[in-house]
Write a structure and sequence with these properties.
Blueprint: H1 6-9, E1 23-24, H2 36-46, H3 60-70, E2 77-81, H4 82-94, E3 100-105, H5 110-117, E4 121-126, H6 134-144, E5 146-152, H7 164-173, E6 178-182, E7 203-208, E8 220-224, H8 227-236, H9 244-254, H10 257-284, E9 290-291, E10 298-302, H11 306-315, E11 318-319, E12 321-323, E13 326-330, H12 334-349
Parallel strand pairs: 1-11, 3-4, 3-5, 5-6, 6-7
Antiparallel strand pairs: 2-8, 7-8, 9-10, 10-13, 12-13
Helix pairs in contact: 2-9, 3-9, 4-5, 6-7, 10-12
Length: about 350
């Protein structure tokens, strides 16, 4: 009888939760659809694609469009089928069996899975009060011989952000460690290291089109690093990893910088409205929850009964996420934010 090996025997598929029919504030997606004119142009572009041909294996036009929007060198960019794929490629390519990788907990759950499948040794480094202790992280990584450190900044699920100089110190102090900086939410903050990658021989920066850019369905992610690391990433990934449809549509969207900047400002305004509503609710019902001072497209709430609150909200038609000991609420349209605040008040008052 065939037996599963140990590393996959207990593996479970990623389960975002069933939010069908609910106000969906659980996945950190953009609540904005593409403008009608651009959506029409995208539809027309589909008709010119040769779907019987393989896509460009380097996604060259897409990488140039990303580089142009963010002001980096095209030769430093690798495109992926979402940053999730790039995370898997990095773990498989840059770690050997038994080597150590570190995460800063709580953080994105897929990092640990990537290490598990690479048969690497996990070194979880806790964050007291949800904040990163840079000096402790450096010390732990040195003590454990960590070969790969991966963390999100701003962090998912805490929404907290490390300053540039702190991230620089981590990367420069851990010169024998590959530092993977996941900037999935950095469009909502101002501490990016994009453009500095050439100055580090051990830094890979990840970006995604699923948050501020509102292209979650296309599954587009990017890795930015110096030419040496980029060359190895391109060699390690599968040759046709980004399909022609995603390449074409992503290229067109990235060529509309004003549209993308306007969308970002709209999302930031929604975040401000959501946080203001939560502040008012916290003042009216003191001691029930605490808001972390983050810089992402969601609010992170510390509360003792967060898991129960999530379930109660789902029963009332509002989907949020309880992860890493935090209740995480994505900012949405004005009516969605208001629906959450009303139902959350009901949960708190019950």
């Amino acid at each position: 009888m065939y037996q599963l090996n140990r590393k996959i025997a207990g593996l479970r598929a990623y389960a975002p939760g069933d939010s069908a029919g609910c106000v969906r504030l659980d996945a950190n997606e953009s609540f904005l659809s593409l403008p009608g004119e651009l959506a029409a142009r995208l539809g027309q572009a589909l008709g010119s694609l040769e779907l019987n041909r393989y896509p460009d294996p380097a996604a060259g036009e897409l990488c140039r469009a990303f580089a142009g929007y963010y002001g980096v060198e095209p030769g430093h960019v690798t495109a992926g089928n979402g940053s999730d794929e790039l995370i898997s490629v990095i773990f498989q390519a840059f770690l050997e069996k038994g080597e150590a990788f570190a995460t800063l907990e709580p953080d994105f759950s897929m990092y640990a899975q990537g290490g598990l499948l690479a048969e690497a040794r996990h070194v979880p480094i806790p964050k007291p009060g949800f904040a990163v202790d840079v000096e402790d992280t450096i010390a732990r990584c040195r003590e454990e011989g960590v070969r790969l450190l991966i963390f999100s900044n701003p962090c998912n699920p805490t929404s907290l952000v490390l300053k540039r100089e702190q991230v620089r110190r981590l990367a420069r102090s851990l010169d024998n460690t590959l530092v993977v900086l996941d900037e999935a939410y950095m469009d909502f903050s101002g501490e990016s290291l994009l453009g500095e990658e050439e100055g580090f021989d051990n830094l890979v920066i990840l970006r995604t089109c699923s948050k501020a850019l509102g292209l979650a369905a296309l599954r587009l992610g990017f890795a930015v690093a110096n030419e040496t690391l980029t060359g190895k990433l391109r060699a390690a990934k599968s040759p046709y990893n980004v399909n022609s449809v995603s390449q074409a549509l992503g290229d067109m969207a990235l060529a509309e910088p004003q549209m993308l900047r306007d969308a970002r400002e709209t999302i930031l305004a929604s975040r401000g409205e959501l946080l203001a509503g939560l502040e008012r609710l916290s003042e009216e019902l003191p001691g029930r929850f605490r808001i972390l001072p983050g810089e992402a497209n969601f609010a992170a709430l510390v509360m003792e009964d967060g898991g129960t609150a999530q379930q109660r909200l789902l029963e009332k038609g509002v989907a949020v996420r309880f992860t890493g000991g935090l209740l995480r609420v994505t900012c949405g349209r004005a009516e969605e934010n208001q629906a959450f605040l009303e139902k959350f008040r009901e949960v708190l008052e019950d």
